[in-house]
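User: I'm writing a short report section on ligand binding and want a predicted complex to refer to. Could you take this sequence and adenosine-5'-triphosphate and write out the structure as tokens? A short remark afterwards would be nice.
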Amino acid sequence: MDPMICVTDIHKEFEGVTVLDGVSVRVLPGQFCALIGRSGHGKSVLLRHLAGMLRPDRGQVLVDGQDLATLSMYDLRRLRRRFGFVFQGGALFDSMTIFDNVAFPLRECLGLAEDEVRVRVMRALEQVSLNGSEAKMPAQVSGGMGKRAALARALVLEPQILFFDEPTTGLDPITAQAILDLISRCHRALGFTGVIVSHQIPRVFEIVQQVVVLQHGRIRFDGTPEQLRASNDEVVRGLLGADDVPPAGEAGGGATGKESAA
Ligand SMILES: Nc1ncnc2c1ncn2[C@@H]1O[C@H](COP(=O)(O)OP(=O)(O)OP(=O)(O)O)[C@@H](O)[C@H]1O
Ligand SMILES: [Mg+2]
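Assistant: Sure. The structure tokens for the complex follow:
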């Protein structure tokens, strides 16, 4: 099966500092992939490359067989309509109601008639159990409701590919679990290809089929949650909280099984 997302050897520097140092990843259609790693190791930057929001200095990003670097702005925009993105922090528009937040991509990208907008927005709000809250302003809802509204805004265009950057940050553990369960239900019901950056370890492993560990801008591990749990790599075990290991950067090799030679 051809991958939906295929990244080959991408490199990215910011102001002379290497952030992505030769990353290659593939995600098959309909699969959900968790991207994990310590803070500052390049997860959000990688996610933005997958979504066509950043361009690599070198290397290739193919989405559904299309090379993002060679697409015209017009074609890139068309392709990106098939993507949904839930940003780190959730980021609703403060000055708009929940309804208008969710309606925004429909009005902006599709120019639908208002009665069609209403049908689609209410359906998306129902998927995240927010029907009844559509008239509220973001400041009037809880953090968890805000995250659910951000999820509804990403779902409303019925994307084939969904990117989540820490969709549960700042929530209490029970609400965070509820959001992960909700994302998982949506994945099963809608069948999108997904990539989720998350620090919800080990919970996030229950909703994905693939886990990628990023360390210092390189792939340290790429495999199934089962392979991850069985890994003896000290960086992987450190992320799982399984061992007392030195901080990232000081850990040596010792990779076994599916770990890549980073
Ligand atoms: N637009 C940018 N300009 C300059 N440096 C950037 C930019 N975006 C990211 N960086 C740098 O790239 C590195 C990786 O950042 P990134 O946001 O990908 O980390 P992360 O793994 O998502 O961390 P966290 O778990 O804290 O969100 C950081 O050192 C960050 O400062
Ligand atoms: Mg990040």
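A remark for your report: The domain at 1-82+189-253 is CATH 3.40.50.300 (Rossmann fold). Confidence is low (pLDDT under 50) at residues 244-262.
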